[in-house]
Amino acid sequence: MDDIFTQCREGNAVAVRLWLDNTENDLNQGDDHGFSPLHWACREGRSAVVEMLIMRGARINVMNRGDDTPLHLAASHGHRDIVQKLLQYKADINAVNEHGNVPLHYACFWGQDQVAEDLVANGALVSICNKYGEMPVDKAKAPLRELLRERAEKMGQNLNRIPYKDTFWKGTTRTRPRNGTLNKHSGIDFKQLNFLAKLNENHSGEVILALLAPPSLIQTATLSC
What we know:
By secondary structure, the chain is mostly helical. The chain has a single domain (4-224), classed as Ankyrin repeat-containing domain (Serine Threonine Protein Phosphatase 5, Tetratricopeptide repeat). It is built from twelve helices and two strands. It has helices spanning 4-10, 13-21, 37-44, 47-55, 70-76, 80-88, 103-109, 113-121, 142-154, 190-193, 203-212, 215-224, and strands at 29-30, 176-177. The protein has a two-stranded parallel sheet with strand order 1-2. It is elongated.
């Protein structure tokens, strides 16, 4: 039988339910990259599995080795229903990963317009800067950029840049690694995203980027290498 990460990734709700019924299993454990079962279900758009994991006590704001939360992944892949579900259960809408990127950065970068609009409607900050001084709206195409700014302003947001603040030790919500180590893998860096054709140059960067980027873009980048 495949492990719980594979079952969540593939959306095998029956197998996941059976695994969860064994109370000795830790549903907040992480795989080799710190991805919890909830991370995988959110990345792949497995709504039924996401609901099941949340109902059984999965941590909504759990972080992988790069400090990405399930909301980062759902937003990146445009899974609007899962984004709404996570927000319903109090996901941190402005959670930052190790590069200072919030879910809205990725929704804007990958062109997930509806998700970006939903995030702003629920309080995502359009002018919060990452480590490189980039705001989410800096990553959006012009029409979306203007729309998000307009909506944020109507909601009372100050559109001035919000400087990046290092919050690396902000909490203790990382997944529990199976091997008991605390080794840290790289998170998602926009410098990597801007050079998709160079995926094979850095093994860690390649793996993590492939986990976050929409499959169609990864396939294109791989073919161009």
